[in-house]
Amino acid sequence: MRTIISNMRTARMAMMFILAMLTTLTVQAAADKTALDAAVSEAETYNSSILESNPKQAEVLTMLINSCKTVLNDADATQEDVDFATKFMNESVNQCKIAVAQANYAAAISEAEEYLATIKENYPAQAEKLNNLINNAKSMEGTSMEVLEFVTQVVTEGLQQIKIEVAQADYAAAIAKAEEYLATIQEKHPEQAEKLTNLINNAKAIESTSVDVLEFFTQVVTEGIKQMQLEIAQADFAAAIADAEAYLATIQETHPEQAQNLTNVINNAKSMEGTSMEVLEFVTQVLTEGLQQMKMEIAHADLAAAIADGEAYMTTIQESNPSVAEVMQMFINAAKQVQADDSYTQADLEFATAFMKELVVQAKEAVTTGVSAARAATSLAAKYYDLQGRRLSQPSRAGVYINNGVKTVIK
What is the DSSP string of 327-343? Predict the structure, then answer.
């Protein structure tokens, strides 16, 4: 009986021990993971917010989140394991935030310094402001996360404001340059001037302060000017070719040597068609200056020939008609003065040539009709000639004329 009672007591104690063990297992299985779940969820949310801007920090935090998720998903994890994982997750997020704040701070400083280097020469006022902003921000290095985030925001917003100021300055400069260029082409190139006017007006109509919008319209205006300059260079090039070819037609018979030289120049210039604006402008200038030089040379040669003809005829009448010869000598001297003076233009030289030719005609007429020296002088001196060598009784309008062998300006 005692043995049975003893065994029952032993069995009862064993049962109580088993129940105690089961109770312990039940407590372990019921570890509270609410805080860990919240910590992981917060970490994942934060990780998503920095994935693009701070990929390195996000990569590290992702590994830490996955480690804590292992505990979160472990049914056998003890409360101690859960509490440790929760603390670890929260501290990891905090450390990541500090790392991100430091990285963002360094990136903001670096971006500001890079932009500063691009504006130092052209925008000294904005460069000085940005330099002060950078130096002030650098003095905050090593401070708390909250201070770093604030300084980063100040630098970022300050940089954005300076970019706006620079974009506005570039935009205003592009408009001013376009208007300045417009003034130079309005008379000679009305079609391109009208297009440029429309471009300027459209650009002026914007009211945005966005850097992107301002930079876009600045680029549109700048590229529009370049396109306009190319069109004008092409038009000037074509006009220079046409002018040279037109002049070539007038000298081919009378001046074959110069005509051949000009033909070569024209052909060389034509081979440059379709090249860049700079090349077209250079070729146009060379062609224009070369043509002008040739015109001057021919005008000088023609005047020299006309003077020689006048002197030759004057020599033949010096004994028989000394009075007429004397008058001729006066005008020949005037023509020689035109020939020797570099201030006279091509038109002046051509005018003097025409006058010398007319002088010989008038002298021959005076000799043939036998007029007196006084009448011959009066007849020759009193006549006006226009720049085409046409004789006039009196100028009918303002312009440049030759009277008494002298260049005369009628206003």
Answer: HHHHHHHHHHHHHH-TT
Number of C-beta neighbours around residue 131 at 10 A: 14
pTM strictly above 0.85: no
pLDDT tens by residue, 86-143: 999 999 999 999 999 999 999 999 999 999 999 999 999 999 999 999 999 999 988 8
Do the strands 399-403 and 406-410 form a parallel or antiparallel pair, or are they unpaired?
antiparallel
With contact defined as beta carbons under 8 Å apart, do 8 and 15 qualify? Answer: no
The CA-based angle 357-360-363, given to 5 degrees, is 150
Structure tokens at 173: 């400069």
| 88 and 36 Cβ atoms separated by less than 8 Å | no
Q: Are 327 and 381 in contact (CB under 8 A)?
A: yes
Helix axes 79-119, 124-138, angle to 10 degrees: 150
CB 189 within 8 A of CB 235: yes
Residues 6+ apart with CB under 8 A from 168: 209, 214
Report the DSSP pairing between strands 406-410 and 391-392: unpaired
Q: Are 192 and 233 in contact (CB under 8 A)?
A: no
CA distance 230 to 192: 11
Determine contact, residues 408/352, Cβ cutoff 8 Å: no
Indicate the burial class of 237 (C-beta count within 10 angstroms; 0-12, 13-18, 19 or more).
buried
**pLDDT tens, 127-184?**
999 999 999 999 998 889 999 999 999 999 999 999 999 999 999 999 999 999 999 9
Q: Is residue 361 within 8 Å of 325, Cβ to Cβ?
A: no
Burial status of residue 164 (CB atoms within 10 A of its CB: 0-12, 13-18, 19 or more) = middle
409: helix, strand or coil: strand
How far apart are the C-alpha atoms of 131 and 35, rounded to whole Å?
A: 47
